[in-house]
Specification:
Mean pLDDT: 87
CATH superfamily: Jelly Rolls
CATH topology: Jelly Rolls
Largest sheet: 7 strands, antiparallel
Helix content: under 10%
Structural class: mainly beta
Radius of gyration: 14 Å
Number of helices: 1
CATH class: Mainly Beta
Number of strands: 10
Number of domains: 1
Low-confidence stretches: none
Length: about 120
């Protein structure tokens, strides 16, 4: 993405993410890829009640909640929360009311639940 225009975080926080083109990612979760590769950077939009099964982080995952609430086994994270999931950590993720997050993965996750 060296030729791409820089992203303005304040604009994303203020709702600029609505201008992004989202595609299906998982049931109830859509993705707007900002950078494909390693690390990957994307926006994820969770429909109300959507979830992602338990998974293992093979590298650092960094999440900034832009809107709504994202939850995992450690708690609920409202807009403005910065979540760091280190390599070797596991969790599942859900959103009761729905949410939009900016996410960065160093490496892909490994799902640990059967059929995930």
């Amino acid at each position: 993405m060296s030729d791409a225009a820089p992203l303005h975080l304040a604009g994303l926080i203020a709702g600029g993410w609505r201008e992004c083109d989202f595609a299906p990612f998982r049931e109830g979760v859509e993705i707007c890829e900002l950078r494909n590769g390693a690390p990957a950077v994307a926006l994820l939009r969770y429909a109300p009640g959507a979830s992602v099964p338990r998974h293992l982080h093979t590298g650092l995952e960094t999440i900034l909640v832009l809107e709504g609430v994202q939850s995992d086994e450690r708690g609920d994270y409202a807009a403005g929360a910065l979540i760091l999931n280190p390599e070797g950590s596991e969790h599942s993720v859900w959103s009761g009311p729905g949410c939009v997050v900016l996410i960065q993965w160093e490496r892909p996750v490994q799902f640990v639940q059967p059929g995930a």
